[in-house]
Write a structure and sequence with these properties.
Number of domains: 5
Largest sheet: 6 strands, antiparallel, barrel
CATH architecture of the largest domain: Orthogonal Bundle
CATH topology of the largest domain: Topoisomerase I, domain 2
Radius of gyration: 31 Å
Structural class: alpha+beta
Number of strands: 33
Strand order of the largest sheet: 9-10-15-14-11-16
Distance between the termini: 83 Å
CATH superfamily of the largest domain: Topoisomerase I, domain 2
Helix content: 25-40%
CATH class of the largest domain: Mainly Alpha
Length: about 750
């Protein structure tokens, strides 16, 4: 009997599927895309209804020829690429290549790589959805038109080699606007006042001043705080309210793509790109000993919180058996569908309740285990009972002044037994209510004694920079991009060096601010949130068949083209505004030097260019050369000098090209261990930054966090480390005794 051919994208997925299918099938992998838009030209024919030109990817000829040979021998062909728009487009490319040898082609969707998932997919063969293909290709065409037409405009205004993207530039704009807010922010002083009281039963508790004459207190200076203290010190205090009520917290829904990326970032410190790479492996299949390859999670690109009836039934049985009936709600939870949800796939969940994290741990590496545990716990918790708490509120009054203390006592942990819904990426406000024990015996109407007042100075804080997870959350809320694109959006603007990731926060660098500013001013109707969101909605209308490929691209391209022509006419004048004149004379011809932008950032150039081609670093960058003083080349012992490349500032041998030795830039301090070497930034094989001694391997000093030559106050260790967390802000940490000091309290010793 002639076999049928199943084509998937990944060899690992092919291996997993092979295990579940009988001898009448054989599975082959396309190894991802087989076609792409050309690199050397735009690939979109605007004059011919935006027809796209897709070329075979170099090196894929062998793969395509093998698939053609197998297709010619097969009775039926089933294309089982990923169940999303990109997978549909790949399916169309594959079909175009093999239809000449076998026309009996069907599309099947595997939402989970399990026996039941594959059987369900094979039971519903269909034709390739041309609407989904057109939607995906319209997105690619739109992105290509922006990239290939706006990037040259950026070259004319800043320098050659920069690039712009339709969605990425809007994400960059969000980051840069946040950076501008932070730069403009001016902190304002204010004070809070907390009172330490004693009850009649001699229990102490803290309460915060929350009202004065029924209004929020506004204490701008220490004098104002002291006046209130002087007034209240002579008065009596009475408990005006003791209120107890039960509150509940409901579990969060199972993961969708965006929430998985957010939680993986905030809880286990994964980038969105890494999260999706690991999730892809969990979806495609993991070798579980004698069981062979098994897909552990459902498809990981989804915007739906929907769960199958079978999975809900299985997890409810698991909860009953492992936690007890009190943890199981009377009815299964059904989560509300999001406004923009396509609901094409289930939520991200384990494929079988059998594969608990404990069961699969020995088969997974550390990172895959962390991610799988996160997915498992969130899924199980989503079907568990609410957590309940008793919330106690105590109000103490003295005339027009009202103090309040609140406390929460757990009554039943419910879903928190499995998944704590803390937000570890949240910025902590130091103005939160004081934490103290609530008295067990306290009655309304009783008098309390004042022990002391605790005034505290505060300063308003600037808006927090985006983390990768909060940026993804913002993009989702604004309707920008799709679940499959979030990771790539962030990765792209990082790769372009428009932003930096420092202590898990996204910082806009000067180049990113410059490019974003130019794009925003030159294309105000294109690179904005509303227009980008509208284009996402229009792309969806192609997928549903409501609008045509040409109509949607016309709506985008025609106004874009007009704006582009206008911007190109202004490119030279824009470039001139970026040139800053100085009073510094050129060392070669005496003309004034100007500050310009180049491939390696800003630099000084002679105003007489091209007759005089003298250039030099900026004066502030010249200062960095002082850091190279006393550092000798490890190869030839010649002095090291500061140099720059597109990757940043580094140290190079002064005898180059005779000696080409280089090393990372020193951070300006001597090695705390050997005292002779200098501390430099280095990278591990996995590209993780760390700090080490320039004298390695003679000196093996290394630290994950930036060292500071400040003696520890507790153990007198010669250095401490600079650290950051959302809860503490900037703080210093002693690697020897673990003593920590909040940055505001730290004192640097030179």
């Amino acid at each position: 009997m002639t076999k049928s051919l199943i084509i998937v994208e990944s060899p690992s997925k092919a291996k997993t599927i092979n295990k579940y299918l009988g001898k009448n099938y054989f599975v082959e992998a396309s190894v991802g895309h087989i076609k792409n838009l050309p690199k050397s030209k735009i690939g979109v024919d605007v004059e011919n209804n935006y027809e796209t030109i897709y070329d075979l990817i170099p090196g894929k000829e062998v793969v395509v020829e093998k698939l053609r040979t197998k297709a010619a021998e097969a009775e039926t062909i089933y294309i089982a690429t990923d169940p999303d728009r990109e997978g549909e487009a790949i399916a169309m490319d594959l079909s175009d290549e093999i239809i000449g040898v076998n026309k009996n082609i069907f599309r099947v969707l595997f939402h989970e790589i399990t026996k039941s998932g594959i059987e369900e997919g094979m039971s519903k063969p269909a034709k390739i959805d041309s609407h989904l293909v057109n939607s995906q290709r319209a997105r690619r065409a739109m992105d290509r038109l922006v990239g290939y037409k706006v990037s040259p405009f950026i070259w004319k205004t800043v320098y050659y080699g920069l690039s712009a993207g339709r969605v990425q530039s809007v994400a960059l704009r969000l980051i840069c606007e946040k950076e501008s807010e932070i730069q403009k922010f001016k902190p304002k002083e204010y004070w809070s006042l907390t009172a330490d009281f004693n009850t009649l039963s001699n229990e102490s508790f803290l309460a915060k001043l929350v009202k004065i004459s029924g209004k929020d207190p506004k204490i701008h200076h220490e004098d104002g705080s002291q006046k209130i203290i002087e007034t209240l010190s002579k008065q009596k205090f009475e408990v005006s309210l003791v209120q107890k009520k039960e509150t509940k917290r409901t579990p969060l829904p199972p993961f969708i793509t965006s929430t998985l990326q957010q939680e993986a970032s905030s809880r286990i410190r994964f980038t969105a790109k890494r999260t999706m790479m690991l999730a892809q492996k969990l979806y495609e299949g993991i070798e579980l000993g004698e069981e062979g390859a098994v897909g552990l999670i459902t498809y990981m690109r989804t915007d739906s919180t929907r769960l199958s009836d079978d999975s809900v039934k299985a997890v409810r049985e698991y909860i009953y058996d492992n936690y007890g009936k009190e943890y199981l709600p009377h009815e299964a939870r059904v989560f509300k569908k999001g406004k923009a949800s396509q609901d094409a796939h289930e939520a991200i969940r384990p494929t079988s309740i059998k594969y608990s994290p404990k069961y699969v741990k020995k088969y997974l590496d550390r990172e895959m285990y962390q991610l799988y545990s996160l997915i498992w716990n969130r899924f199980v918790a989503s079907q568990m009972h609410n957590a309940s708490f008793e919330q106690t509120t105590i109000e103490v009054t003295s005339g027009e002044y009202l103090f309040r203390a609140t406390g929460t006592t757990p009554l039943f942990r419910g879903f928190l037994q499995v998944y704590d819904d803390l937000d570890s990426d949240k910025d902590i406000n130091d103005d939160e209510d004081p934490i103290s024990a609530i008295p067990k015996k306290i009655n309304q109407g009783e008098e309390v004694n004042l022990n002391k007042f605790l005034p505290k100075q505060h300063f308003t804080k600037p808006p927090a920079r985006f983390s990768e997870s909060t940026l993804v959350k913002e993009l989702e809320a604004l309707g920008i991009g799709r679940p499959s694109t979030y990771a790539q959006i962030v990765a792209t603007i990082l790769d372009r060096k428009y932003i930096e990731l420092i202590e898990r926060r996204l910082y806009a660098v000067p180049l990113g601010m410059l490019v974003s500013g130019i794009l925003t001013k030159s294309f105000p109707d294109i690179f904005n949130v509303e227009f980008t969101r509208q284009m996402e909605e229009e792309l969806e209308t192609i997928a549903t068949g409501e609008r045509t490929y040409k109509k949607v691209l016309d709506d985008f391209y025609l106004p874009f083209h007009i704006t582009l022509e206008s911007a190109n006419k202004k490119s030279l004048s824009i470039k001139k505004t970026l040139i800053e004149e100085t009073d510094i004379p050129c060392e070669k011809c005496g003309k004034k030097m100007v500050k310009k932008w180049g491939r390696n950032g800003r630099f000084m150039a002679c105003k007489g260019y091209p007759k005089c081609k003298f250039t030099s670093p900026l004066p502030e960058d010249m200062e960095k050369q002082k850091l190279a003083e006393g550092i000798m080349c490890r190869e030839c012992n010649a002095p090291m000098v500061t140099k720059a490349s597109k990757y940043g500032v580094f140290l190079g041998c002064s005898t180059y090209p005779k000696c080409s030795y280089t090393q990372p830039m020193t951070i300006g301090i001597n090695c705390p261990l050997c005292k002779d070497g200098h501390v430099i930034e280095r990278k591990t094989k996995k590209k993780r930054n760390f700090y080490g001694c320039s004298g390695y391997p003679k000196c093996n000093f290394a630290a994950w966090y930036k060292p500071r030559l400040t003696p520890c106050k507790e153990c007198q260790n010669v250095y401490v480390e600079e650290r950051y967390s959302a809860k503490k802000g900037n703080y210093i940490h002693c690697p020897t005794c673990k003593h920590e000091v909040i940055e505001e309290e730290a004192v640097t010793v030179n």
